[in-house]
């Protein structure tokens, strides 16, 4: 069983920097890490690349040969990779025995909620190589300083979650730089927990560009609230504690925390009986079920 991360996010959100920093951090933890570059536009890699899509197809060649722009070229490259998935599979086979995988994907957001090529690549790798992957979706934290951009980031995150259908962690990257872009309208927890979005309406109406789309914005916020799926973790890639907290979340989501445990009833029962790390008062119904179950066992 192989574990890893699918790193996505808009251009400039810090995907390549993240892969570089995360690979170094995981190496310090004793994991053998292999970074797989699947971004054919990324020609300046700061990390040692185990597999590089440019060995299969180059964006510059595609643009020249087919007279395509960058966006069309990236879609073509993903389509070409999907049709040549055997190439990628053969490259990964020597790594899956003992490596933790980081997949660095392109920053074109359309690939993850409009087109199916990138999703198909991920699905085929999961089935063929028995991978356990978590999507790490990076969003630049400075978008929180603009209510309109923040709502757009929420929509993008929700769309990607619904489209890819994998364990998914949304991350506000470059959190250490957020103060450089001005004061937030609310405290940071408001933006990470994605609380009542109606509170943003006042601030949106202060911007003449956003005011005329008031009704549309209200409807979009209602959609986000109704799904109630999106929240964010924060990340400063230079801060070991910040990276460590994110690694814990990722390991829980893809099951890595169970990888070194003998899958017996006894071992898993020990985990189940361990103290829980959540607030009981946030889940009153669950607490009631647990108490009722214990009483039923006692009565038996």
Automatic annotation (TrEMBL):
Keywords: GTP-binding, Hydrolase, Nucleotide-binding. The keyword Transferase does not apply. The keyword Calcium does not apply. CDD domains: GPN2 (cd17871). InterPro entries: Gpn (IPR004130), Gpn2 (IPR030231), P-loop_NTPase (IPR027417). One of its GO terms (molecular function) is GTPase activity. One of its GO terms (cellular component) is cytoplasm. Gene3D superfamilies: P-loop containing nucleotide triphosphate hydrolases (3.40.50.300). Small GTPase required for proper localization of RNA polymerase II and III (RNAPII and RNAPIII). May act at an RNAP assembly step prior to nuclear import. Binds to RNA polymerase II (RNAPII). Belongs to the GPN-loop GTPase family. This is GPN-loop GTPase 2. The lineage of its organism: Eukaryota, Viridiplantae, Streptophyta, Embryophyta, Tracheophyta.
């Amino acid at each position: 069983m192989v574990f890893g991360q699918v790193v996505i996010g808009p251009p400039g959100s810090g995907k390549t920097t993240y892969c570089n920093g995360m690979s170094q951090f995981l190496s310090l933890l004793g994991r053998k890490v292999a970074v797989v570059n699947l971004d054919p536009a990324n020609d300046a890699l700061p990390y040692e690349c185990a597999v590089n899509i440019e060995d299969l197809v180059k964006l510059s060649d595609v643009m020249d040969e087919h007279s395509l722009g960058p966006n069309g070229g990236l879609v073509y490259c993903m389509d070409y990779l999907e049709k040549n998935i055997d190439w990628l599979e053969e490259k990964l086979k020597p790594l899956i025995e003992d490596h933790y995988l980081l997949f660095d994907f392109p920053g074109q957001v359309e690939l993850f909620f409009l087109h199916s090529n990138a999703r198909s690549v991920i699905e085929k790798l999961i089935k063929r190589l028995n991978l356990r992957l978590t999507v790490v979706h990076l969003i630049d934290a400075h978008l929180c300083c603009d209510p309109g951009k923040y709502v757009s980031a929420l929509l993008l995150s929700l769309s990607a979650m619904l489209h890819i259908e994998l364990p998914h962690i949304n991350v506000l990257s470059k959190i250490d730089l957020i103060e450089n872009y001005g004061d937030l309208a609310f405290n940071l927890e408001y933006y990470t927990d994605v609380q009542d979005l109606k509170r943003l309406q006042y601030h949106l109406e202060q911007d003449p560009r956003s005011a005329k789309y008031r009704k549309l914005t209200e409807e979009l916020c209602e959609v986000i609230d109704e799904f109630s799926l999106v929240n964010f973790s924060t990340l400063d890639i230079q801060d070991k504690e910040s990276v460590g907290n994110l690694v814990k979340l990722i390991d829980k989501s893809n099951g890595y925390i169970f990888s070194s445990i003998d899958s017996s009833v006894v071992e898993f029962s020990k985990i189940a009986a361990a103290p829980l790390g959540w607030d009981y008062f946030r889940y009153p119904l669950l607490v009631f079920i647990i108490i009722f179950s214990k009483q039923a066992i006692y009565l038996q």
